[in-house]
Amino acid sequence: MKQNNSNTIEHELREQLLTMAAQDQKLREELLNSQRLFDGYNEELEKLHYEHAQRLEKIIQAKGWPTESMVGIDGARAAWLILQHAIGRPDLLRKCLPLLQQAAQRGEIDAKFPAYLEDRICFFQRQPQKFGTQFDWDEDGNLSPWQIQDLARVDELREKIGLPSLEAQIKLMRQNAAEEREKPPCDWTMRMEEMHRWSRKVGWID
């Protein structure tokens, strides 16, 4: 990837992105500490994600996708984080996917960013993912990768963009869940039904 050029980085834009990302993580930490993070999609968090999505969309309309040369490595990562969490705006995620793919091809952002976004779109559309980055609780109460398009090739695809093996990722995700005291849903079927209703409401599925 290209090195940062301090003469071209738009510092005000970078600070906006970093501030939004910090607000996102602060609220997440507060919800985690109060044991409310995993009790459905928290309304306060949903509101913040939607507001940030609106602001990010305006930035993209004015400047294009924030690249490392524009906002620095940390600013580019913050923009990606904000987009990943804008799950109530399927139109925005879908519109941004080719922007991220093109930026990654030019070496202007981390190659993992469009991969995560592509998988996230597949997950919420309830379609198999490509890189195995999205996880959810399965019927047996295990945190597992969402359905994968080509399980035989997934580690090859992951390696190309700098991701660990799927086996290593599963171990890490389950370890993180345990550390954060995340537990499987009491009623898996009900959770799936609630997720489908929400996905239809915001426009992920018909």
Could you write a compact summary of the structure shown?
It is built from eight helices and two strands.
Write a structural description.
- The chain is mostly helical.
- It contains 8 helices and 2 strands, in the order H-H-H-H-H-E-E-H-H-H.
- Strands 1-2 form a two-stranded antiparallel ribbon.
- A hairpin with a 5-residue loop joins strand 1 (135-137) and strand 2.
- Helix 4 runs antiparallel to helix 5 (112-124).
- The termini are far apart.
- Mean pLDDT is 95; it is low at 1-7.
Radius of gyration over alpha carbons? 17 Å
How far the N terminus sits from the C terminus, by CA atoms, comes to: 39 Å
Low-confidence stretches: 1-7
Tally of contiguous helical segments: 8
Largest sheet, spatial ordering of strands: 1-2
Q: What is the residue-mean pLDDT, rounded to a whole number?
A: 95
Q: How many DSSP E strands?
A: 2
Q: Biggest β-sheet, characterized?
A: 2 strands, antiparallel
Helix coverage percent = 55-70%
Helix-strand string: HHHHHEEHHH
Residue fraction in strands: under 5%
How does the overall form come out from the CA principal axes? globular
Structural class: mainly alpha
